[in-house]
Amino acid sequence: MGFQQLLTALRSRISLRLAIILAVVFGLTVPAAVLVPYQLNTIEEAVRSKNKDDHERLVGILSVILSEPLWQITPEIANISSEVVYSDPRVASIEVITLPDRKEFIKNDTRRHSQKGPFTIKTREITHGGQVIGEVTLTLAEDLLQESLRSDFRRYMTTAALSLILAIIFILMVLQWRLVKPVKVLMEKSDRLANGELNDPIALNREDELGHLASSLEATRQALQHSFGELEIKNQQLLEYSGTLESKVRQRTQELESVNQNLEAALHNVNNAQAELARVERMAALGSMVAGVAHELNTPLGNCLLVASTLEEETRRLLKMVEEGQIRRSDLTRYAETALDSTKLLLRGLQQSAHLVGDFKQVAVDQSSAQRRRFGLLVMLQELSALLHSSLRKTPFTLELDIPADIEMDSYPGPLGQVFTNLVNNSVIHGLEGRSSGQMRCSAERMGDYVMLIFSDNGKGIPPDIVNRIFEPFFTTKFGQGGSGLGLSITFNMITNVLGGNINVSSIPDKGTQFEIRLPLTAPGDREAKDPLLSPD
């Protein structure tokens, strides 16, 4: 546990009374702990300074009073004169010597053996008539000084301790009277408020912070009492209203059930309309293909008819020559060559027609229904592109396929073909409109169990403000000009609901538009389903 957590835990467990006691004790003891040593040091310095001054004064007195006895060489008078100084209990010894021979004149040290010290020594010269005649040495013992300092320390500490205890007691009494007791009263009042007892007024006849706190609690009590009174009224009104609420709920439930039935019917109608729109769109695309196929078949069949009529005429001419007996080898050779060339032309035209009819037959079956089957993506789109070629040949636009031949799908070729047809028509009508040339390109890439189809053109693009609305039903920029606004909406629904994929569009103005279609190789749904477009699910 860190120091901060320990401090937080201690602080949360300390009561108000203990916190006040600790604050008072620390508030008084900390300054005392700083000031007492300082004061004692000051006293000691003062006592030592006084002791030093006394030492200087006493040795000065001795040098004066012993001048005459030392000059007259009367040790008895000198001993009597030094007794005045030696009467001071601090004096340990007095020694006087004569100069210049340094002989001992007097010596008084009877107390020195009983004193412990430490000792301080001072020496002063004795003069008479301006001549140095001797030297006095005064030794002081600090026993009494140390005892005095210890006595002063005990007295000062006792005084400080008593003052601290009395101050703490006095402060605690004042705090108990002015803070702790009122706080307890306010706590009891607050507990009553928490328990919902709001009839007992809260009042403290004081003008300090606690008095303001009591006034605030009283205002809170009154506000709560008022709020509870309003709540009682509201509860009574709710009880009265709940009597009629059940019947209103039943009525609203019946109305909602009726609305839900209407919505279900409307949803069913919308699903039917959507299926019908998809069927109509397929039929419209199929009709356009029929016109294109008819136009494409007209050329090879017309050529076959012309070759057949020419061959018939040549055959009749040969028969006439045979009947008249005028046939020659060269005529027979020329007829055989003509018949061979005509047969080649007939076979070529008939094969082209048969190929177109086969493509149309498969596409027509796919477009008129949503039968599920396995198919090659490249073959299916090539067949559809061949049928769209007749309408694209009238425009300056080209369609390019870049589809790998190994992509096989188990899906619905009809809806997929309609999606492809809608994208081509959308590019021709909207993206490439008014341009002298243009390219459309459809590429595919296999990605695991999915295939990514990318259809793009280099047309004028889609404005940024409507690019997010192109899949909305009935949204078109050709409104009133033959556009229904259903092509891309049906495309979106077929991709998401039938083919189980998703489609995204990106466009840059004047750079073209790109549709990205992600389809599963195996379409979702029941393989035995006849037509998923007619299913509401």
From TrEMBL:
Primary localization: membrane
EC number, UniProt record: 2.7.13.3
Keywords carried by this UniProt record: Coiled coil, Kinase, Membrane, Phosphoprotein, Transferase, Transmembrane, Transmembrane helix
Histidine kinase domain residues: 292-523
Coiled-coil spans in chain: 249-283
Catalytic activity reported: ATP + protein L-histidine = ADP + protein N-phospho-L-histidine
Domain HAMP: 177-229
Membrane-traversing stretches: 20-40, 156-177
One Pfam family recorded for the sequence: HAMP
Uppermost EC category: transferase
One GO cellular component term: membrane
GO molecular function, one term: phosphorelay sensor kinase activity
Alphabetized SMART domains for the sequence: HAMP, HATPase_c
Gene3D superfamilies hit by this protein: 1.10.287.130, 6.10.340.10, Histidine kinase-like ATPase, C-terminal domain
Keyword Nucleotidyltransferase appears in the UniProt entry: no
Compartments it resides in: Membrane
Lineage top rank: taxon: Bacteria
Keyword DNA-binding: no
Name this polypeptide is given: histidine kinase
Organism: Undibacterium rugosum
